[in-house]
Write a structure and sequence with these properties.
It catalyses: gibberellin A1 + 2-oxoglutarate + O2 = gibberellin A8 + succinate + CO2. It comes from Liquidambar formosana. Pfam families: 2OG-FeII_Oxy (PF03171), DIOX_N (PF14226). One of its GO terms (biological process) is gibberellin metabolic process. Belongs to the iron/ascorbate-dependent oxidoreductase family. GA2OX subfamily. This protein is globular. It has helices at 7-10, 12-24, 27-37, 58-72, 85-99, 103-106, 152-180, 186-190, 259-264, 313-327; strands at 41-42, 46-48, 75-79, 119-121, 136-141, 197-203, 213-218, 224-229, 235-239, 242-246, 253-257, 274-277, 284-291, 298-299, 311-312. Mean pLDDT is 90; it is low at 26-31. It starts with 6 loop residues before the first helix and ends in an 11-residue tail after the last helix. It has one domain: Jelly Rolls. By secondary structure, it is an alpha+beta fold. The strands form three sheets. An eight-stranded mixed β-sheet has the order 2-3-11-8-13-6-5-4. A five-stranded mixed β-sheet has the order 1-10-9-12-7, with no helix packed on it. The chain has ten helices and 15 strands. Helix 4 (58-72) crosses helix 7 and helix 5 (85-99) crosses helix 7 (152-180).
């Protein structure tokens, strides 16, 4: 398709090198590699947020479940989250229309009137196939919405969606802060809509699904991520030291803890490693909302003694970018241990 980024062609040196290596592998080694992509399927803890509005003990029990999932899993899913099915369907339709645009248009710096790096595909800093992501994405800062024009309906839908999702993120963050006995207003003061962003992801069909990831293993560098995904599946995370596959739930949004919340909570809430595996036959799409502070916000544990030193979000992002550029991998929070 002329809408697909030229992933295989642009990274052909990786594929040629890997083909040569593959010829030297034994059948056992090859089977082991494939096995690493095939893991058991689990359902994430499912939390009905409507319970926060009920009487009796329901609200406190619901809050405790959110905190428990954040510390034990680093991931959970929510229903009755406030985002209507109509908005979710429109977001998906607009996303599909966007990714169907010809590749040369998507790669144009002036497309959508966003920053020059808003459209991203592949992994420019990868040094091997295992560091390479078979995907394309639009990174959309909510401080820089594109207005009228060809994609005005996309812009208005994103604006409607992000308002509701921002409120949900604030509510979850406040619950997690209160559970620690910490200042819950921190997030309202520092994580404004203008500092957050959306990332619309597309994972095209991949001819070598056991050789390359849709999205390489990583942790998120924000406080919270709220994910709306389709029903194809492919999201995997680390639980108790092993990779597990997350069963899609058409009614739920997925919420995961990011690095900043792990540092802010002094390691009580876990930023779990996760990845996306590829599919040979069908594409997968998702929309992720990243709940971020301003770059100048200082991240300091609300619990002492802290296992992490103080750092600004700007410093953290710069360190992550430097590590990825020089090594091909994100190091993340271990860089900031005391």
């Amino acid at each position: 398709m002329d809408s697909d980024p030229p992933l295989e062609e642009s990274y052909k040196n990786f594929f040629k090198k890997e083909d040569f290596i593959k010829e030297l592998e034994t059948e056992t080694e090859t089977a082991s590699k494939k096995k690493s992509f095939i893991v058991d399927e689990y359902e994430l803890p499912l939390i009905d947020l409507n319970r926060l509005n009920l009487g009796g003990s329901e609200p406190e029990e619901c809050k405790r479940e959110i905190a428990d999932a954040s510390s034990q899993w680093g991931f959970f899913q929510v229903v009755n989250h406030g985002v209507s099915q109509d908005v979710l369907v429109r977001m998906r339709c607009e996303q599909v229309k966007l990714f169907l645009q010809p590749f040369h248009k998507k790669a144009n710096d002036k497309f959508l009137n966003l920053s020059t790096d808003s459209y991203r595909w592949g992994t420019p800093n990868a040094t091997s196939l295992m560091q390479f992501s078979w995907s394309e994405a639009f990174h959309i800062p909510l401080s820089n919405m594109f207005g009228s024009g060809t994609f005005s309906s996309l812009s208005s839908t994103i604006e409607e969606y992000s308002i509701i999702i921002s409120e949900l993120a604030q509510r979850i963050a406040e619950i997690l802060a209160e559970n620690l006995g910490c200042k819950s207003t921190f997030f309202a003061e520092n994580c404004l809509p203008s500092s957050c962003y959306l990332r619309m992801n597309r994972y095209p069909p991949c001819p070598i699904p056991f050789e390359v990831f849709g999205l390489v293993p990583h942790t998120d560098s924000d406080f919270l991520t709220i994910l709306h995904q389709d029903q194809i599946g492919g999201l995997q995370l680390v639980k108790d030291g092993k990779w597990i596959c997350i069963k899609p739930n058409p009614e739920a949004l997925i919420i995961n803890i990011g690095d900043l919340f792990q540092a802010w909570s002094n390691g009580i809430y876990k930023s779990a490693g996760h990845r996306v595996v590829t599919n040979r036959e069908v594409e997968r799409m998702s929309v992720a909302y990243f709940f971020c502070p301003s770059y100048d916000t200082v991240i300091q544990s609300c619990i002492e003694p802290s296992i992490y030193r103080e750092f600004s979000f700007r410093e953290y992002r710069q360190q992550v970018q430097e590590d990825v550029k020089t090594t091909g991998n994100k190091v993340g929070l271990p860089r900031f241990l005391r």
